Structure formats: C-alpha cells, structure tokens
Amino acid sequence: MFTSTSITDHAKARSADVLIPLIRTAATIGFAVAPCSLGFVIIAVSEQLIRSIMVGDDPEMLVSDLQNEFPDDVIEVDEGADAGLVAKVVDLIDRSDQAADLPLDIRGTDFQSRVWDTLRKVPTGKTVNYSFLAEQLGATATAG
After folding, report:
1. Kindly report the CA angle at 22 between 18 and 26, in degrees rounded to 5?
2. What is the pLDDT of residues 68-97, one digit of tens each?
3. Residues near 107 by Cβ (< 8 Å), separated by ≥ 6?
4. What is the torsional sign of CA 78, 81, 50, 55?
C-alpha cells in the first residue's frame, strides 16, 4: 500500500519536531524545609540545581504549593539535602544585603534568560523601572 503525504503534512511534522526539545519529561524534585526569619522556607532541588524557593508560615502549605507549582513532577523529601545549601538560602533570607550565588535552574526563552541576567545585576535594595531594563537589554520600552 502506498501512502502519500503533502508538503503541508511535512511542514507540520517539522514544526512539531521543533517543539519536542521544549517538552520536558517529569522530574523528581527533592525538597527541604527549614525555619527562617520569615517563618519557613522550602527549597526544591533537582539535578543539583534549585528549582524553587518559597517562604511561608506553614510548612505543609509550602509543600502543597510546591506540588501545585510542579504538578507533573514527583515531589519528595530530600533526606540527604545539602545542609550547606539550605543554610546558605536561610542566610540569604535573613541577611538580604549579601550577594546571592546559588545554583539556580533557570528555564525560559533566550529573551527571558537575558532579562533574568540583567535583573540579577541590579544591586540588592535598588529599584529599576522598565525603561532602565529595556535600555540594558538594548531594547526600547513603550508606554502602555
């Protein structure tokens, strides 16, 4: 039996191939909860990179929020959590005047990554506006 496909079918297949790398399989995310000056912090890690840091008053609610943030991933307590990393995150929360140097799992488009890199260069406590950010990115901000 002979099956023919049109040019349109091939174009659709090629565009679908482009999307495949953007689709991630489910991951296992380990987490640790620790007390901090703001209540509790939950630090979620996969592949030795921080996926999420959240602060709240109720550790159980933080775990629930983490499950909602990553509904397709396996969320489990990391019994072997890196105590040094947990202490570093708590210290950054308690003393926000220091520079943050954490192994972050930053995901996004090239543009989103550029925005994130630019924002990370803003000194702690300094406020910037969209015009400044656009200027740093080599773009122009338009009033909305």
Report:
1. 140
2. 999 999 999 998 889 999 999 999 998 877
3. none
4. positive
Residue holding tokens 């002979």?
Answer: 2
Q: Which two tokens stand for residue 81?
A: 């959590």
Q: Parse the chain into domains and list their residue ranges.
A: 24-98, 106-144
Q: Could you say which of 3.40.50.620, 3.30.160.70, 3.90.1150.10, 3.40.190.170 is the CATH number of the domain covering 24-98? A: 3.30.160.70
- C-alpha dist (Å) from residue 2 to 5, 6, 85, 99: 10, 13, 60, 64
**Which token pair is 1?**
């039996």
Q: Where does the chain show beta strands of DSSP type E?
A: 28-36, 39-46, 49-56, 74-77
Buried b (16+ CB within 10 A) or exposed e, 38-61: eebbbbbbbeeebbbebebeeeee
Q: What is the pTM of this model?
A: 0.67
SS3 103: coil
* CA 35/CA 33 separation, integer angstroms: 7
